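so ive been stuck on this for like two days lol. basically i have the seq below and the ligand is nicotinamide-adenine-dinucleotide, smiles is in there too. i just want the complex predicted, nothing fancy, no docking runs or whatever. if the output looks off dont worry ill sanity check it later, just need somthing to start from for the group meeting slides
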Amino acid sequence: MQQLRVLIVGCGNIAGGFDAERPASAPPLTHAGAYWRHGGFRLVACVEPDAARREAFMQRWLIEKGYPTIEAAAVAGPYDVVSLCSPTALHSAHIAAILSLHPRLLFCEKPVTASGAETAAAVEVCAAAGVKMAVNHNRRWAPDIVRLKRELQAGAQGKGGPWGAVRSAIGIYNKGILNNGSHLVDLVQMLLGPLELIAAGPPLFDHWKDDPTVPALLQTRQGVPVTLNAAHAGDYAVFELQLLTERGMIAMEDGGAGWRVRRIVASPHFKGYAVLDSGQRTSGEYHASTLAAVGNVHDALTRGVPLASTGETALAAQRLCERIGQRALGRDGAAASAHRAVAPDFEPTTSPATLAGAFASTRSPALLPTLNEVHVPRRSAAAPDMRPDTEPETRPEPQPEPQPDPQADTQPETQPA
Ligand SMILES: NC(=O)c1ccc[n+]([C@@H]2O[C@H](COP(=O)([O-])OP(=O)(O)OC[C@H]3O[C@@H](n4cnc5c(N)ncnc54)[C@H](O)[C@@H]3O)[C@@H](O)[C@H]2O)c1
């Protein structure tokens, strides 16, 4: 097998630390662990300013050379692949420095940079330099998620498959709309296609001071509603996705380490009703994703295979996460001005007509929100056009203002009267 020369920048947890004390037989969760396990890479050098950490990393992963800066690592080049695993705030400057080493591929940790504008610039300069970019939204490489995507596509194209059509998606996450929410948004966009933001809920500052966890309502181009639900990172880590489909419910649990599938059965209590069974839990293949990722990196450079997770897919997720954050923070003047200092490129995107139309396509009139229930940014003379991020292929007509239905809360449709 062709041996590709690798430089790792930043020698912390995702670079190798998470694997440092795991048994050699365990599936690798890190860049260094996966490169070693694959066998088609040679770890030539690493960059880490902390001398003790650099030395320990070199010893653990048998790396020949270590340097305190990217510039100093030039002497051990050229490199085929550079893994960027330094803190996110440094990524923008580090990508510029890495490009001066002329690698063939940059395997970048997410988020690519701290803002959509910087990520867009990074994607552009890598493309201009002819450097491929893979981004570690690792679920894009998990074998079970890749299979699920094919099955859902069959359903969306009316070709049946095990699930039929997707009715809605429910994501649960914490620890920041950019840091972890971008994984969730990217996963849903991978499975269901581009998303449009409809409304954002109140920001929850559960871990990062500049990256709140935000609940949000979105929809796919086909009008499938997607909700992002916030948990508090101080309670526990959670990352889950439920898909309600025509033929049952699929739930990714424990970040993808497990799945629960609930199939349709006849109700044991109400004659003539179809309900979901209590479900079956199976193991997931999330832990195979990092090895599959470096396999894809190797194939991209040796056989021209397309990358499953790219700068473009990551940028699409990051831009949407920024819009969600901006929409949430726009409700609070103080928070909004603090946020603007961090990321000045947020733009409001959804018009009142889109909001009413989007809800009308998927919800019964009794559940339609009034426009004052959702935040609609004020349009000023200087403000750019407020248009949706994506154009639905068929946009539903705006509906008249709904009247509240006093029966709505007391008549669940799934129970006999
Ligand atoms: N894909 C995922 O699921 C996932 C999981 C964890 C972390 N990450 C991302 O990986 C990146 C690193 O996170 P981490 O948890 O490994 O952090 P970490 O703090 O464990 O590691 C970062 C390392 O970079 C080093 N560093 C600091 N300044 C540097 C410099 N100038 N040059 C080179 N190295 C420098 C630090 O000393 C540290 O060893 C972040 O962007 C994070 O968002 C992604």
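Residues 332-417 have pLDDT under 50 and may be disordered. The chain is about 30% helix and 20% strand.
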